[in-house]
Write a structure and sequence with these properties.
Largest sheet: 4 strands, parallel
CATH topology of the largest domain: Rossmann fold
Strand order of the largest sheet: 2-1-3-4
Number of domains: 2
Number of strands: 8
Structural class: alpha/beta
Strand content: 5-15%
Radius of gyration: 17 Å
Distance between the termini: 20 Å
Order of helices and strands: EHHEHHEHHEHEHHEHHEHEH
CATH architecture of the largest domain: 3-Layer(aba) Sandwich
CATH class of the largest domain: Alpha Beta
Helix content: 40-55%
């Protein structure tokens, strides 16, 4: 299958190893990965901040780049949610509708169009899985506690199929990590406290590794872990799956 890999800003600037892992993993799973997607940003940060003019320019550039592809994979639930749910309403044109239709979060793509609900691999560690809010409730890629749904979804299934992996289940599995974009700047103390709560929840259950499908959540939790000396290795889901399937 031919797919385009779209690298979000946070991955490009702060977690390039997640982009490399996404490329290697998709190729290992039989995809021909196209690297011609040349839009630098989907426009979500500007959209969320109310910077309409900048958001429109970024969104148009993104939809123009999307037009050449039939499947676009992004290692970010947050950006995927923006492209799928906000761009069509924001731009109201067929290019935005096409972008929304062909864009997938990485685990969603592997378990869906690629048809691989489990992968052959080994990762002998105790893992705490954090699914970001946009992936959880926006893309509906996991169960919601307020609906009394169990922890589920494509990322959980892909992890569960790896030999040797055990889950360090959160007491509050779908609680926000505290990042929330500009919230982490405007409400830094609250944001940090939420991150600490999330890490305490993970380490209390014996987690050795914390994994997330969202680079922004991962950046936040990694920073809190570093400053609190939490004994956790932090990985993007692409990095974990690529390592496990070598």
């Amino acid at each position: 299958m031919r797919v385009a890999l779209a690298v979000p800003c946070y991955v490009d600037q702060f977690r390039p190893q997640a982009a490399r892992a996404s490329l290697l993993l998709l190729e290992r799973l039989g995809c021909e990965v196209l690297l011609g997607f040349d839009a630098p940003c989907c426009g979500q940060p500007m959209f969320n901040a109310g910077a309409t003019r900048a958001a429109v320019a970024a969104s148009h550039a993104w939809t123009r780049a999307s037009g050449a592809f039939d499947a676009i994979v992004m290692p970010s639930g947050s950006c995927t949610h923006h492209v799928r749910h906000h761009l069509p309403a924001f731009l109201q044109n067929t290019a935005a509708e096409h972008a929304a239709r062909v864009t997938y979060e990485l685990c969603e793509f592997i378990a869906g169009p690629l048809g691989k609900q489990t992968l052959s691999g080994r990762f002998p560690f105790r893992v705490a899985m954090h699914l970001g809010c946009h992936a959880q409730r926006g893309l509906r890629l996991g169960g919601a506690s307020e609906l009394h749904q169990p922890v589920s979804g494509p990322m959980h299934a892909l992890l569960a199929g790896l030999d040797g992996l055990s889950f360090a289940e959160f007491d509050r599995p779908d609680e926000c990590c505290g990042f929330g974009g500009s919230f982490a700047v405007g409400e830094a103390e609250v944001s940090t406290a939420m991150g600490r709560d999330k890490l305490r929840d993970a380490t209390r259950h014996g987690a050795e590794v914390l994994v997330s499908s969202d680079p922004s959540c991962l950046l936040h939790l990694e920073g809190v872990a570093r400053h609190t000396n939490a004994p956790l290795r932090t990985l993007h889901i692409a990095e974990l799956l690529e390592e496990a399937t070598r």
